[in-house]
C-alpha cells in the first residue's frame, strides 16, 4: 500500500536561520568514547595525531561537526580539570564513579581536547564541574583557556606549552543538576547558577561567553519555569534539555533485535521531542519573548541495552535503521524549531549510545546515524523554509504516529528538503508544492536498507551508506518524492 501527503512550502523573510550548532556532538569520559575511541595514545600503532585516531579525525571533519561537548555528562561534575594538565606521567588518577568504576589516568585533558577541536575546526563546549567543584575551580578553568594577558592561569597554561588562549565560548554550568549533578531542586540550582555565572568573565575575548544552565529532564517543565523565572537574562545564554529515545527506561531491549512493537515505542519517545521543545519553548517565551536565551538539547539519541558481553557501564550499542529514523526525525524537529532551539548534541560521538562512529581495535565504521547527519549538514546555517502538512498515520494496535517528517532550508541559492518515512512497511508519496521557490532542477540522496534491524558491522561496514536517490519528479511547481518504507531522503533543488 502507498500513502500520500501534500506539503505546503511557505518561504518567509522572517524565518530563522538554522543554527549550525544544532548539529553538535557530545563526547564523555565514558566507556570507549575517549579512551580506546578517540584517544589511543601517541604510542599506538593505529595512525594518530597527538594520540587521536586519524580515521576519526577525517570522518568528523567530513561530517562538519560544529561543536563538541566534553568531558560529560555525569562525569563533568566529578572532573577536576587541573588533574588533566601538565606532564602526563605526573597526572593523578581518579575513579570514574558513574561509568564502570574504571581508573581514569587523566591522560586526555584540556589541552588534548581543545587541540583536537582546533584540528577538527569545531567549537569546544566545556561542561564544567558544579556538583563537586567550586566557583574558583570553575573560573580558573575559564581563565586558563581564555586569558591572554598575565595572570596565574595564563602563566600556568604557558608553562604547559600553550601561549595563545583557545578562546572557549560555550560553557555548561554543571550537568543534570536534578540527578547525577547533585540531586538539586531547580530553586537551589538557579541560585547556584547565578553565583557561578556572575564570576564567569570572557577575559576580553571578542565574543561573550555562552553560559548554559543544566536543564530539564524530559518533561520537567517546572525546572525550565524556575530557571527562566529566577535567572536574569544577562546572566544566561542557554537552557539545556535532555531527552533520550528508548523502548522502556527499565527494559531498554537490544539495539539490533527488536520487534515492531519495540520499534513503535522507540519512535514514540523520539517523536515526543516535538512536544517537548514546543512546551519548553512556550515557557521560555513567557519570560523571554525576544528569544534571547537558547534552548540547548545537549543530550539526545537512542538508548538500548549494551551489546552482549560488553561492560554494562560502558553503554556500547549498535546502530540500526531505527537510529537513522531517530536522527532524521529529531533533526527535522530541531530545524523546524530553529527560532528557539539553537544548539543540540547527539549522545555520543564514538562507541557510546547513538554513536556516529564505532571502533574495534584498528577498525572503524560509520553508522547509519553518521550518514543521516552527513546528508543533513546542508541545513547548517541555512535559512529555514517552514512547511505545513498533515502526515499519513503509522498505526499499531490502538496507537498512531505521524509517518512522515519534513524540514526544508535555503542557503547559497540551493533549497534542501529532508524527508523521513518512519513507516516500517509502507511507501509514502510526498507532494511538495514548491511553486513559490521557482525550482528548475533537483537531485537526491537516501539512507535506506532492506530491514529495520540492519546495521553496519565490522564484517560488513558499508551495508548502509548514503546513496543516490532518483525516485522524485519536479514538474509544474510540484516536487513529488516517493520514499521507501523506513528511509531518510534529502533533495537538493535550485
Ligand atoms: O550520555 C550518558 C549520560 O546520560 C550522561 O552522562 C548523563 O548526562 C545522562 O544521564
From TrEMBL:
InterPro entries: Alpha-L-AF_C, ASD1_cat, GH, Glyco_hydro_b. Gene3D superfamilies: Glycosidases, Golgi alpha-mannosidase II. The keyword Signal applies. Keywords: Carbohydrate metabolism, Glycosidase, Hydrolase, Signal. GO terms for biological process: L-arabinose metabolic process; polysaccharide catabolic process. It catalyses: Hydrolysis of terminal non-reducing alpha-L-arabinofuranoside residues in alpha-L-arabinosides. Its EC number is 3.2.1.55. GO terms for molecular function: alpha-L-arabinofuranosidase activity. Residues 298-487 form the Alpha-L-arabinofuranosidase C-terminal domain. It is an enzyme of class 3 (hydrolase). Belongs to the glycosyl hydrolase 51 family. Homohexamer; trimer of dimers. This is non-reducing end alpha-L-arabinofuranosidase. It comes from Flavobacterium silvaticum.
Amino acid at each position: 500500500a502507498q500513502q500520500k501527503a501534500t506539503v505546503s512550502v511557505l518561504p518567509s523573510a522572517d524565518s530563522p536561520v538554522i543554527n549550525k550548532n544544532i548539529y553538535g556532538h557530545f563526547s564523555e569520559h565514558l566507556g570507549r568514547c575517549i579512551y580506546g575511541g578517540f584517544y589511543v595514545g601517541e604510542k599506538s600503532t593505529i595512525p594518530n595525531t597527538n594520540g587521536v585516531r586519524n580515521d576519526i579525525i577525517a570522518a568528523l571533519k567530513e561530517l562538519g561537526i560544529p561543536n563538541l561537548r566534553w568531558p560529560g555528562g555525569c562525569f563533568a561534575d566529578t572532573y577536576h580539570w587541573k588533574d588533566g594538565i601538565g606532564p602526563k606521567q605526573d597526572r593523578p588518577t581518579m575513579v570514574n564513579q558513574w561509568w564502570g568504576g574504571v581508573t581514569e589516568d587523566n591522560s586526555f585533558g584540556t589541552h588534548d581536547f581543545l587541540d583536537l577541536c582546533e584540528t577538527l575546526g569545531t567549537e569546544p563546549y566545556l561542561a564544567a564541574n558544579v556538583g563537586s567543584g567550586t566557583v574558583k575551580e570553575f573560573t580558573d578553568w575559564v581563565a586558563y583557556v581564555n586569558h591572554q594577558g598575565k595572570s596565574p592561569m595564563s602563566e600556568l597554561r604557558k608553562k604547559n606549552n600553550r601561549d595563545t588562549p583557545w578562546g572557549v565560548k560555550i560553557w555548561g554550568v554543571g550537568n543534570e543538576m536534578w540527578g547525577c549533578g547533585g540531586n538539586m531542586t531547580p530553586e537551589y540550582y538557579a541560585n547556584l547558577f547565578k553565583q557561578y555565572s556572575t564570576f564567569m568573565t570572557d577575559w576580553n575575548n571578542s565574543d561573550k561567553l555562552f553560559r548554559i544552565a543544566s536543564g530539564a529532564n524530559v518533561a520537567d517543565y517546572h525546572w525550565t519555569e524556575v530557571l527562566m523565572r529566577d535567572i536574569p537574562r544577562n546572566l544566561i545564554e542557554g537552557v539545556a534539555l535532555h531527552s533520550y529515545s528508548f523502548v522502556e527506561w527499565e527494559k531498554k531491549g537490544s539495539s539490533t533485535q527488536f520487534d515492531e512493537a519495540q520499534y513503535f515505542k522507540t519512535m514514540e519517545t523520539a517523536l515526543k521531542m516535538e512536544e517537548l521543545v514546543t512546551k519548553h519553548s512556550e515557557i521560555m517565551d513567557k519570560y523571554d519573548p525576544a528569544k534571547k536565551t537558547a534552548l540547548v538539547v545537549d543530550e539526545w539519541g537512542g538508548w538500548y541495552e549494551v551489546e552482549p558481553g560488553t561492560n554494562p557501564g560502558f553503554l556500547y550499542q549498535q546502530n540500526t535503521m531505527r537510529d537513522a529514523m531517530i536522527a532524521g526525525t529529531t533533526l527535522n524537529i530541531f530545524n523546524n524549531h530553529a527560532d528557539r532551539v539553537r544548539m543540540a548534541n547527539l549522545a555520543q560521538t564514538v562507541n557510546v549510545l547513538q554513536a556516529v562512529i564505532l571502533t574495534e581495535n584498528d577498525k572503524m565504521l560509520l553508522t547509519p546515524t553518521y550518514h543521516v547527519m552527513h546528508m543533513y549538514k546542508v541545513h547548517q546555517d541555512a535559512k529555514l523554509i517552514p512547511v505545513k502538512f498533515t502526515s499519513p498515520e503509522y498505526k499499531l494496535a490502538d496507537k498512531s504516529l505521524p509517518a512522515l517528517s519534513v524540514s526544508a532550508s535555503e542557503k547559497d541559492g540551493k533549497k534542501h528538503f529532508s524527508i523521513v518515512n518512519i513507516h516500517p512497511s509502507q511507501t509514502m508519496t510526498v507532494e511538495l508544492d514548491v511553486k513559490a521557490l521557482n525550482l528548475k532542477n533537483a537531485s537526491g540522496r537516501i539512507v535506506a536498507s532492506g530491514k529495520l534491524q540492519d546495521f553496519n558491522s565490522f564484517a560488513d561496514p558499508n551495508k548502509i551508506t548514503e546513496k543516490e536517490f532518483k525516485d522524485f519528479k519536479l514538474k509544474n511547481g510540484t516536487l513529488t518524492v516517493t520514499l521507501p518504507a523506513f528511509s531518510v531522503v534529502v533533495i537538493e533543488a535550485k
